[in-house]
Inverse folding.
């Protein structure tokens, strides 16, 4: 019985508190009201558009030839074309990074993933 009464009292206090929070801002704005002189109301929004500073591009150049020097020459030719394209687009040489360069032979595969001794490229 006493607990119910305490809850009821807390409920009334909370209700008065919330009511005062709602009424207080309204009363503050009502006192000022609208200005008695002409006024201009301005609202704005702005956005800034900038070109990108950084781009990350990953790609693989693959060449297959029976002899490694021929495949290497083909990859170098493709690489030079890409570097020329980047220079045409005014990308500085020190902004370009080439990494994870690999050269490996490729053998013919049979079923079940077993490799035979025949060199493909």
């Amino acid at each position: 019985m006493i607990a119910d009464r305490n809850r009821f009292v807390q409920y009334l206090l909370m209700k008065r508190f919330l009511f005062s929070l709602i009424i207080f801002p309204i009363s503050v704005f009502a006192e000022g009201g609208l200005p008695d002189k002409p006024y201009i109301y301005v609202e704005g929004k702005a956005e800034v558009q900038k070109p990108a500073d950084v781009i990350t591009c990953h790609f693989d150049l693959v060449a297959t030839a029976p002899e490694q020097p021929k495949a290497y020459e083909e990859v170098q030719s493709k690489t030079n074309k890409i570097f020329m394209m980047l220079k045409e687009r005014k990308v500085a040489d020190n902004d370009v990074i080439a990494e994870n360069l690999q050269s490996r032979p490729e053998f013919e595969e049979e079923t079940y993933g077993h490799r035979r001794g025949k060199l493909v490229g």
Notes: The CA atoms of residues 62 and 102 lie 10 Å apart. The mean pLDDT is 77.
